[in-house]
Amino acid sequence: MPSKKQKYYVVWQGHNPGIYTSWEACKEQVHNYTNAVYKSFTSRAEAEKAYADGPVFSKKKTGNQKPVSGVKTGMIRESLSVDAACSGNPGVMEYRGVWTADHVEIFRFGPVEDGTNNIGEFLAIIHGLALLKKQKHFTTPIYTDSKTAIAWIVKKKANTKLQRTSRNKELFDLIRRGEQWLKDNTWENPILKWDTKKWGEIPADFGRK
């Protein structure tokens, strides 16, 4: 009897969003979770890309068009948006988080020297997750326009090639603490890819393009 082919399960919205290698593990994350969003894939690469891209919506037009697993179409206004800015690569980096609905700034970090935009995006998501957990906003979504940062969050590690220097020691200490936070904590907040083509620049954008 042929062996069962390995599947990878992406959980966009569940008790702990991420990528799982068994249906049993995936089921634990979506069971009794309102509007859970998940889907299976046949390869790790497909799963990681799908997780970074965000939930896939149904294109079948029969009556009222609905997204898969019941997620509402369009941008979720009651959410946190994060973004980073970096002058050079590496260069002076900072990040911030704003409330999507009214663009009110919730937090801001930096500027620090010898950073990168990807690191800023990664740390901004962690900052947002930690803040929302502390405030008991357990299901508030976080938007980012960085697929790379989402992939790093999934792996719970910043896969940066940036070299550590005397000028960015504080930044690397922050990366280490952020990675440890991801390993020590669970979260329910969906981390979603901002659709720049449909919605314009993410509300947390620094406007320096």
Describe the fold and architecture.
With 209 residues, the chain is an alpha/beta fold. Helices cover 31% and strands 23% of the residues. The chain contains six helices and eight strands. The chain has helices at residues 23-30, 44-53, 117-134, 147-155, 169-184, 196-199; strands spanning 8-13, 18-20, 37-41, 80-88, 91-99, 105-115, 142-144, 191-193. The protein has a five-stranded mixed β-sheet. The protein has a three-stranded antiparallel β-sheet with strand order 2-1-3, with helices on both faces. Helix 3 crosses helix 4 (147-155) and helix 3 (117-134) crosses helix 5 (169-184). The chain starts with 7 loop residues before the first strand and ends in a 10-residue tail after the last helix. The model is unreliable at 56-73 (pLDDT under 50).
Please write out the topology:
Elements: E1 8-13, E2 18-20, H1 23-30, E3 37-41, H2 44-53, E4 80-88, E5 91-99, E6 105-115, H3 117-134, E7 142-144, H4 147-155, H5 169-184, E8 191-193, H6 196-199
Parallel strand pairs: 4-7, 7-8
Antiparallel strand pairs: 1-2, 1-3, 4-5, 5-6
Helix pairs in contact: 2-4, 3-4, 3-5
